[in-house]
Amino acid sequence: MNSAIIHEHIALNPEVRFGKPIVKGTRTTVAEVLEMLANGMSASDIAEDFPAIGPEQVRACLLYAAYKESIVLLAVA
């Protein structure tokens, strides 16, 4: 897993959006990006609506979610 892309594009700040992970330079949460993807938006659709969120930021959101899921699975096992 490429954690560098996560650190480059995802931030945790307790003063922004109640500490939820956000796309750096925005107030858009990782969960919101994932929800947009789940509702059928493509990375280019997201970039059109949110110019600060390009394909690399979307990829970072997906990697962040995959990383968090693997942590949960390891903790349960």
Describe this structure in words.
- 21% of the residues are buried.
- Strands 1-2 form a two-stranded antiparallel sheet.
- The model has no long low-confidence stretch (mean pLDDT 91).
- It has 77 residues and is mainly alpha-helical.
- It is built from 4 helices and 2 strands; from the N terminus they run αββααα.
- It has a single domain (3-76), classed as Arc Repressor Mutant, subunit A, CATH 1.10.10.
CATH class: Mainly Alpha
Look up the CATH topology. Answer: Arc Repressor Mutant, subunit A
Count structural domains. Answer: 1
Major sheet attributes: 2 strands, antiparallel
Strand numbers in spatial order across the main sheet = 1-2
Low-confidence stretches: none
Distance between the termini: 20 Å
What is the helix content? 55-70%
- The count of β-strands is 2
Q: Which sequence of SSEs, written as H and E, runs from N to C?
A: HEEHHH
Question: Radius of gyration over alpha carbons?
Answer: 12 Å
Count of runs of 4 or more consecutive helical residues: 4
Q: What share of residues are in beta strands?
A: 5-15%
Mean pLDDT: 91
Q: Kindly name the structural category.
A: mainly alpha
Which homologous superfamily in CATH is the superfamily?
Answer: Winged helix-like DNA-binding domain superfamily/Winged helix DNA-binding domain
CATH architecture: Orthogonal Bundle
